[in-house]
Write a structure and sequence with these properties.
The chain is an alpha/beta fold. Helix content is about 40%, strand content about 20%. The termini are far apart.
Length: about 210
């Protein structure tokens, strides 16, 4: 007879497998929703669940023959004002860009910005760190979040976003990304997002 610990371990594995299947189905269903809304995408890649842009890029390199070089990975930063109105912003830039939050604050004429906590992220966009996407704005039904997109990102032919699940990636044109925003009734502010001074970035890393 199997011991309690072995049975418990098997039950955990079954639970984890069912959870993963649920995430995959959510991603697939969302892709179907896009198609039904007339939003096309060039490629859909299934891969291991990733926790950041660097990890994503590692997987994308395997499909370089199909993707080419003229694509960007959307990096998402959810921030809010530390005091005052505590307005919340979802900032999307190219993955390798290190943004200067002080410069962004000056452009937006808002209070000092800080990153939202995991709890705030889940409450606003129903997701967790490492799995934030433009598409999660569908959950912000009260429009509490202002969307800011870096103009530089829109120079690429394709932009990669997770379709609500970070084990899949969709590559779509900037025009189709804006079509999605139209479908959910949202607008974006396009800005030249300032970068941090490279020397400062290296200093922080060291």
């Amino acid at each position: 007879m199997e011991g309690y610990e072995e049975l418990f371990s098997k039950a955990q594995l079954v639970s984890q497998f069912e959870q993963k299947l649920g995430k995959i189905k959510m991603g697939q269903d969302f892709c179907q929703e896009l198609v039904e809304d007339g939003i096309s995408y060039a490629w859909c890649i299934k891969h291991k669940e990733v926790s950041g842009c660097f990890e994503s890029r590692t997987y994308y390199q395997r499909y370089q023959e199909y993707l080419g070089n003229d694509y960007a990975i959307g990096k998402h930063l959810l921030v809010h004002e530390r005091r005052g109105q505590r307005r919340t912003f979802l900032i999307i830039v190219e993955d390798e860009k290190q943004i200067d939050l002080k410069g962004v604050r000056e452009q937006l004429e808002c209070g000092k910005l800080e990153f939202c906590s995991s709890e705030e992220l889940f409450g606003l966009l129903h997701t967790v760190p490492g799995n934030v996407s433009l598409f999660h704005l569908k959950y912000d039904t009260d429009s509490r979040i202002s969307l800011i997109i870096d103009s530089e990102l829109l120079n690429k032919s394709l932009i990669a976003f997770h379709p609500l699940y970070n084990g899949m990636s969709l590559f779509l044109t900037p025009n189709d990304a804006f079509k999605y925003l139209e479908v959910i009734g949202r607008k974006a502010t396009i800005m030249d997002i300032p970068s941090k001074n490279r020397e400062c970035v290296l200093e922080k890393v060291i």
